[in-house]
Amino acid sequence: MLSEPLIERLTATPLFAIGLTLAAYLVGTALFRRLKQPPWLPAILIAALLLAGFLAISGVHYTAYQDGATWLSVLLGPATVALGMPLYQQLPRIRELWRPLAVCLPLSASLAALYAVGIAWLLGASDHVLASLAAKSVTAPIAIGITEQLGGSVALLMGALLVTGVAAIAFVSLVARMMGIDDERLIGFALGLNGHALGTVRAFEISPTAGAFASLGMSLTGIFTALLLPLAWRLFGG
């Protein structure tokens, strides 16, 4: 465990948190490749576990790390907007499926929020926890804003986002194999809709087409949820 004066010096500027985050991601990516890229253990999950382990062993408080790493959050918005490029490139294929996608999106996005909140409610979770889980299938830049509106915890939300993304990657792949679905457009859309950014990364590993449809699913789910979830929360007394 590091001494308090050393911790204070390290966390005095954001450079320590940013460097630690980038190092964890690079090591996580290397381990992910060495493990032959298992879908249930993405690089970002390995990086998160490495970061948590380091903070626990070193004695660096999470709040101090978070204050420095906040600078990286600024990049989430531009990174999400940049996904519009593959969408534009795949626009003709998207137009072919706009009707079934338009029908599927409201149902799927609503269920994504409903089942998480419903299970937590049945287990006796507080309103604070319910508000933190409601946006767990939405990409982080949008989900953070929604959670703050609902009065939830952003820290708990981030954990739920990670678990949701990993679970979506595993289950979408499994269900696709079980049902004999090999259409990259459908698989990509399901990954983006359910697994937000993590699912989209996995979709781009499949193909550019799957990645574009994942970007579409992630973007539309974020817009739909941001518009309707706060309203539904007020109407039903959340």
Which characteristics define this entry?
238 residues; mainly alpha
What's the helix and strand layout?
Elements: H1 4-10, H2 15-34, H3 43-58, H4 62-73, H5 76-82, H6 84-89, H7 91-96, H8 98-122, H9 127-133, H10 140-150, H11 154-178, H12 184-206, H13 208-235
Describe, in plain words, how this protein is organized in 3D:
By secondary structure, the protein is an all-alpha fold. Helix content is 81%, strand content 0%. The model has no long low-confidence stretch (mean pLDDT 84).
The portion of residues forming beta strands comes to under 5%
Average pLDDT rating:
84
Helix fraction? over 70%
List the helices and strands in order: HHHHHHHHHHHHH
Main sheet, how many strands, which sense, barrel?
none
The whole-angstrom Rg is 19 Å
Shape: globular
Q: How far is the first residue's CA from the last residue's CA?
A: 42 Å
Content-based structural category:
mainly alpha
Tally the helices: 13
In total, the number of strands is 0
Low-confidence stretches: none
In short:
By secondary structure, the protein is mostly helical. It has helices at residues 4-10, 15-34, 43-58, 62-73, 76-82, 84-89, 91-96, 98-122, 127-133, 140-150, 154-178, 184-206, 208-235.
